[in-house]
Structures are given as C-alpha cells and as structure tokens.
Amino acid sequence: MAVELPEGSWWDWDVVSWDPSRLVLGTGHDLTYHHLLELRFDEPELVTCPAAFQDPAFRDPTPAETPRVQRQLGSLPPVLVAFTADAGGADPADGLIAAGRLTIVRGTVFRYWRGELGPDERHAPWVRPPVG
Q1: What is the pLDDT of residues 83-129, one digit of tens each?
Q2: What φ, ψ does residue 72 adopt, rounded to 5°?
Q3: pTM above 0.85, yes or no
Q4: H or E element: which one contains 119?
Q5: CB-based contacts of 113, cutoff 8 Å, min separation 6
Q6: Distance of CA 110 to the CA centre of its chain
C-alpha cells in the first residue's frame, strides 16, 4: 500500500510513540520543536522501521516482502505499508509496517511544554508541564 500524504513538507520523520496497540510516526520539515502530521498504525503486527529517517518514498510492498509478511503473520493484515528512506547510513533503509488500520492526522504536536493550546494543537505524549 503506497501512502498518499497531504500537501506539505514531510521531510523529517521519527517514531513518536509505540506500544502494542499503536505505532505513531511524526513528520514535518524540522522535528526540533513540533511535528505537523502523524501516521497512526493501529494494531501493529510487524514493524521494520528506523527510529528516525528522512524523505521516505512510500511504495507498494515488493514481491518478496508480501509473502514474507504472510509467512510471519499467517495472513496478510488490512494495512501493509512499505517505504525506502534515508536513515543516515551508506545505503537507503527500507521500512515495512503491517497493521490493522492506518489513520493520517494533521495538527501541530509540540515537543516541549507550550501551556495553553489552540484548536488542532496538542503536546507530544512525553511532554509534561514544568514542576514548580
């Protein structure tokens, strides 16, 4: 499944959160202070993904990737996303995510305490208010 992203500068990517029920990838033009788009994978079953990467090219899974996922999981999941990206190594890194559902969510997600938030703004899951 090739992911179709909305218009925007989606160059910088990282794993925002990951637990057994959801994997969240965040993206924007610079992840220092915030991200502007999230790919939320519900019920991730198989994840091969760098922790941080740049400029991914989302594509259909290769003829070798699809049967590998089917063998590992016993069947193909509703969502199978593949990409190739720059992860800082000499060669491009491949990503493969098998999940129950994919939701694309826009909005500003601050990576630092911001105080009062406006519509479509929220804090990243690890951000806490200052103590004292």
Answers
A1: 999 999 999 999 999 999 999 999 999 999 998 999 999 999 999 99
A2: -70, -40
A3: yes
A4: none
A5: 123, 127, 128, 129, 130
A6: 16
